[in-house]
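Appendix B, record 7
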Amino acid sequence: MTIRLEDVVLVRGTQTLVNGFSAVFGDRNRVGLFGPNGCGKSSLLAAILGELPLEAGRISLNPPEMTIGYLPQVRELPPDWTVLGALRDRTGVEVAERALEQCASRLASDTSPDAAADYDLALRRFNSLGAASLDERAAAVLTELGADVPLDRTCEGLSGGELARIGLAGIVLSRFDALLLDEPTNDLDEAGLSLLVEFLDDFGGPVLLVSHDRRFLEATITSVVEFDPYLDRVSLFNGGYRAWQRERQRAHTAAIDEAEQYDESVAGLKEQIAASRRQSARGVRTANRAYSEGSVDKLLRNMMIDGATAGAGSVRKVKRQLEQLEKPDSIRKVWNLRLSFPQSRQPPASFTLNDVRLERGEFALGPVSLSINPAERVRIHGPNGSGKSLILDALLRDTLLLNALPGTRPWRDGFTSGSSVARVGVLDQQRSTVPRGATNLAEWFPNAGGMSAADARTLLAKFGLGRDDVDRPMSTLSEGERTRVGLALLAAGETTGLVLDESTNHLDLPAIEQLESALAEYRGTLVLVTHDEAFAEAISFDRTIYLPG
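Structure tokens (predicted):
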């Protein structure tokens, strides 16, 4: 099974995302796609699926009928779908079954060889996907994954963790020939992550994945496709995550050395030219002064000038050497998120839950009693579906928010309180504070952030969102870009506390590291939900509250 890319060119608006990339991905290749948010990783996956047209080049599959499974970055499912319906969609069974039914219906009136061949192909695909046994396997796999959701339950009200488990179940249940996984670890707890690693280790076909979970990458990938918008290239590195990091650092160091040597050579040759010109100018001045003082005649003066300017040929030779110096590639200028969270002069926020009962869909939690003290740093942890996001919603019920969240709180009874003067910044799991409308960031952000248009553009630029990004519809922003917009909102005003739900989801690695640094310096109250253990280890928590599920 192979996926072949030949001189692929991908364009979005006026931006070229991929410019002439070629590669072949075969059985047991585990390929990690890396690059800054919005650089084209998800677009390349969409192109392989045939959902995004190429500007130039070709993508081919061998065999042509091979099946490709896709886990999208956004996990939302139609609320009226059942869990089983979602799994049938994610595993390709729904499409295969419809195709088989259409071919069977055609055979009733068309006995041509083409109709029979189409039916045979549809039947092979149906069987290869394990469609006949999916309903039986689905319940067992969901139980194994710890997803306590009935197959006939609708998707309305499912938590982010439950959606992640259903997405993982779709992968595990699938029998595709190849897999394209866009942020498969988002919202997955430790048990789910372990199962995903085990599944990929056993999977026989090629896998292309986008992820920023460092531990997951170390355990899975065998090669890297790196997007470098600064150098306008996409390149393939054959080696695992750590090996790629070492090679990337070595290449960066070598590029710096080469650039320094080039600069030194250029400076040396320019100095030779300048020295020759200074010496020539001094000789000419000496000849003219001697002539004006009468110590030499005109003939001797001219001979002295000819001697002083005889080095012109040498200067031309050095200039040719300068022109022939091969300039090295530009050194990668890595954009780093410049992130800090301004802290209010008001006292840090505090939160209290007293016998609170919470509900969302068919899930109920409580009674819960919890107090978070001013300036305390708290991690809320637990398996998928244990109610972590519900707890955050309850904590925020009576709190003055810096950035309002849409929707209603899952409140039933009990008592909550928050600091009445608190301005708490929120980044929820769905990034609800950042709409998906047709308006653009340049129009929306100044009002949302309470600042002038010029200041808004300046702030967004610090988050890697330049002119092209702020002027296009917000509906076209990638999930990583929407996360950065949400963080920019938090950086736009002073806060007494931050409540962050899976804040590293969709962020690239440099941005995650900058977020770690910003939170380390923040002195307001911090309440955080994360399954990214490397990120959690970098944050100094006063307390971890574990929900057993």
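Remarks on this record: The radius of gyration is 31 Å. DSSP finds 18 helices and 17 strands in the chain.
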